[in-house]
Amino acid sequence: MASRLSIRLVFMALATFMFAIVSGHPTPKTVPRGLPKVPANDPFYQPPAGFESTAPGTVLRSRSVTVAIFGLIPEPIETYQILYRTTAVDGSAIATVTTVFIPWFPMTDRFVSFHTAYDSSATQCDPSYTYQLGASQTDLITSAEMLIIQIYLLQGYIVSAPDYEGPDAAFSPGHLEGMAVLDSMRAVSNFQNSGLSTNKPMIVGVGYSGGAIATGWAGALQSKYAPELKIKGWAQGGTPANLTGTFYQLDNTLFSGFQSAGVAGLLKPSAYGAQLQPVLDSVLTVQGKSLLDYANSHCSVQDLLNFPEQSLF
Q1: Is residue 192 within 8 Å of 183, Cβ to Cβ?
Q2: SS3 154
Q3: Pairing between β-strand 59-64 and β-strand 78-87 as defined by DSSP bridges
Q4: In this structure, are strands 230-237 and 158-162 parallel, antiparallel, or unpaired?
Q5: How far is C-alpha 108 from the geometric centre of its chain's CA atoms?
Q6: Dist CA 131 CA 126 (whole Å)
Q7: Contact predicate 309/252, CB 8 Å
Q8: Per-residue pLDDT tens for 262-278?
């Protein structure tokens, strides 16, 4: 059943593209030359000097991009990326990116905040990179969930998909991810090219699995961190509600590769690195350090293939 649904979604996406061509609807005006740069080498991801003094959710810069299904089939819609200011676990200022998809005939008073399950602690796995035409499709989960975004676009919803793990790809620290989601909503609400007719749009947040960490924490933090947002609902599934319990449940299973990515994410500077690194240094074996190094440079599918049915503990 799942495979039939995937095939159906692929055909929907292809049909959308072909309809755009034959009906005269806008297609991307230009196709970028060369391949997109990974975030570590792309100046767009670096915040400007003095950004620390801006408010959370401030748009720091933006650009128009060409996005593509599986990196190959260009989307015939307007798409922008926004670098915005958000907040690290310790309260300091950091910046990350959200990608804004605008359908042909958008509903201009609302948008969907879609939190893809990229479940990785390497910045080349960021959705904002994977979405772009010509990008390496190393994060296959993000590539597949791009098909879900197509459903929202076909229904007329503007969609924002943030890199909610922040600038150093901190997978699993929910507090950080929740704030990044809420600040992306602020940024999109105030972005001039968002397609929205109001700076107080209605918003629904959506996420599954790793994306549910970001969704659940955003829902929990919203009333205090971003009470001005007009949230109409949250939808989450496969939710890792208790991170410790999730780690034990994943241990020694086919999905134990998520553990190394999760620990690597907790150790990021924007998360809990200052507190956790000394603890981990005192207990990690050579193999354990090797696994974390691998997780810091590979995406979720590679992590799963590298560390199946093994025990972190």
Answers
A1: no
A2: helix
A3: antiparallel
A4: unpaired
A5: 23
A6: 9
A7: yes
A8: 999 999 999 999 999 99
CA distance 113 to 98: 10
Mind giving me the DSSP string for 52-98? GGSPTT-EEEEEE--BEETTTEE--SEEEEEEEEEE-TTS-EEEEEE
Residues in Cβ contact with 9 at an 8 Å cutoff, skipping those fewer than 6 apart = 147, 148, 150, 151
Write b or e for each residue in 124-136: b if 16 or more Cβ atoms lie within 10 A of its Cβ, otherwise e: bbbbbbbbbbebe
Q: Say how many CA atoms lie within 13 Å of 185 toward its Cβ.
A: 31
DSSP run (H or E) holding 288: helix 286-295
What is 218-245 written as a DSSP string? Answer: HHHHHHHH-TTSEEEEEEEES---SHHH
Quote the pLDDT of residue 33: 56
The helix or strand, by DSSP H or E, that contains position 292, with its residue range, turns out to be helix 286-295
Long-range pairs for 285-292: beta carbons < 8 A, 24 or more residues apart: 288/312, 291/260, 292/260, 292/263, 292/264, 292/267
Per DSSP, the three-state class of 12 is helix
In the chain, % of residues over pLDDT 70: 89
Cα 192–Cα 193–Cα 197 angle in degrees, nearest 5 = 70
16-74 pLDDT, tens digit per residue, is 444 444 334 444 445 555 789 999 999 999 999 999 999 999 999 999 999 999 999 99
